[in-house]
Amino acid sequence: MKKLLFLAAMSSVALASCVSDESPSIDATPSGKAISFNAPVMYSQTKAVVHTGEIVGTYPTDEAFCVYAVWTPESYTKWDATGNSAKWYMSTGGAGIKVKYDAGIDDGTTPGNGAWAPETNYYWPKNGYLTFAAYSPADAAGTFNYGANGLTITGFTVDGTASNQYDLMYSDRAYNKTTSTVGSNTMYDGVDIKFYHALSSIKFKVKLYEDYDVNTIITLTGITVNKVKSKGDFKETITDGASYDAAPEWTNQTDEISTAYRAYPKTTETQQVLYNGGTAQELTDGSNQTSNDLILLPQTLGDEAIITVNYTIKSKDSAEINQSAEVRIKSLTPKWEIGTRYTYTIIFALDKIYFAPSVENWIDDSSEIDI
After folding, report:
1. Band of pLDDT at residue 271, cut at 50, 70 and 90
2. 329 DSSP assignment
3. What ranges do the domains of the chain cover?
4. CB–CB of 309/226 below 8 Å?
């Protein structure tokens, strides 16, 4: 084995979505019309992992998110503005109000398509404005709070099993809303809100440098991410005002994961033969043996954070030999950023065995024979 080449590519991902509104606990007469939410919408270039798996397109109807809403008598200017301070309308700043899809909602704008709404109805006030924010999924780990400077999450932990990980998202503020029926997503009624990814996505691809001898067999047996931090606190850090301006960050990251994050194999499937004397195979999204996409904590990567690749190699007359290679992640990517997907392509490049024969000089030894 000549080398294992790791190529790292990263691309930012954005996510669009929507909001909802809640019941009056303020000095404003309710309109009698229930608040509903438009479906959170994913931009076409985004593949987001949520509870229901990897999706493209609209927010899945079997997922739920949580919302906050505050009421102001005039257009929102600042959370504690004199004479126009924000009053809670949905939630009181702790956990948000859970919102689920209801197929029976029909506001008359888009009949029969349903919408997202709280299990207990909240109604639009006739006077003033509602400003919304949200997070997803509704039952995400950690302690959630919301205030003038946005969302904070304390003690969020990434699950050690890839299949249990999910795409934690936070929204910007949807300012000064007065009705559910102005959504830009024509499939559903509801107020629009935009979601952003709070974590980092880690993706793997595997390929061979070239085709090799027909008697060669290369089998991938495992890819793991080791010794990365899994627990931390999130701050949205909004500069409070009438337009959305945030500087989200993770702090207090700690190394809580005791075992490696396994990207491959996904569960217990037979490992993929990358090469068996024919055409080199790639481990890609289209493969039967595609790897898990890991959703991990944004962090600065230290020396202890490594990717381990396990594989076997067999030549014509050899036994199957176990092999392993490691690389420090920071040599590829010094830091995992919020809302960014990192794709690591592992390239197997084999060195053919050659021989360089040489012959040592004869050792001269002479004798005389008398006859």
Report:
1. low
2. G
3. 3-7+201-229+255-349, 13-199
4. no
